[in-house]
Amino acid sequence: MSLEELAYISQIVGVVAIIGSLVAIYFQQRQTNQIARAQVSQAVSENYLGTLRELMRPELAVIFRKVMFEPAPLSPTEATQILVYFNLTIAPLRDAFNASRDGLIDARFLDNMSQNACWYLTAPVFAAEWRRAQRTGIYGKDFVAYVNGRFKKLQPGHDAARLTPGAHEAQPAGLPGGVATARKEDPQSETADS
Predict the structure, then answer these.
(1) CA 41, chain centre distance (Å)
(2) Nearest 5°: phi and psi at 115?
(3) For 29-41, how does the pLDDT look when each residue is reduced to its tens digit (9 = 90+)?
(4) Between the N and C ends of the chain, which has fewer C-beta atoms within 10 Å?
């Protein structure tokens, strides 16, 4: 074997080694991405489950039943508590939506999370709060379109148009008169509520 042949063989071995290390780096990066995605999914899930655990507190459970199952008027304090709970439930869904768009969590995970939110939106109190959030720009347009689209798909027996601002009921059931009236008639109160 001549020196020239040895040089060619060493170059071929070098190229194979480089390709092998690039393949190894690819698989390592893929595994790192999978671990990161799992961690993001777990963090979003824990945040979401934390809000659901709040319903285990008896005082909030009673208010939730008034809104979802046994429509009854809410006191101003009850209305505040349940609307804060609703927004705390929507926030992890928004985080999951953004993480899904960035490729950090699986879209199936997001779709599973959206089921409760869409069910909540069947209640007039929550639908009114969702419209208020849209009017004040709390959530981005893409997220709003996603939630409204999921609602339309998951709740075909309900009018999805009532989720968009301008689709007002005379008075959301269960909210104290002063709260609903201020939100409906006085646009300045929306900024104060935000």
Answers:
(1) 12
(2) -60, -45
(3) 888 877 877 787 7
(4) N
User: Within 13 A of 168's CA, how many CA atoms are on the CB side?
Assistant: 10
The secondary structure of residue 31, as a DSSP letter, is: H
CA nearest to 175, candidates 114, 129, 112: 129
DSSP label at residue 122: T
DSSP 163: G
Q: Which residue from 78, 84, 99 is spatially nearest to 138, judged by alpha carbons?
A: 84
Helix or strand run (H / E) with residue 183: helix 177-185
Reference 81, options 186, 167, 179; nearest CA is 179
pTM recorded for the entire structure: 0.68
Q: What is the C-alpha separation between 77 and 144, in angstroms, rounded?
A: 27
Contact yes or no for 193/132 (Cβ under 8 A): yes
11: left (phi over 0), alpha (psi -120 to 50) or beta: alpha
Q: What are the pLDDT tens digits along the chain (194 aa)?
A: 788 888 888 899 999 999 999 998 988 888 887 787 778 777 777 777 777 777 788 889 999 999 999 888 999 999 999 999 999 899 989 989 998 898 888 888 888 889 989 999 999 999 999 999 999 999 999 999 999 999 999 999 988 888 888 755 444 545 554 443 222 333 333 333 33
Other beta carbons within 10 Å of 109: 17
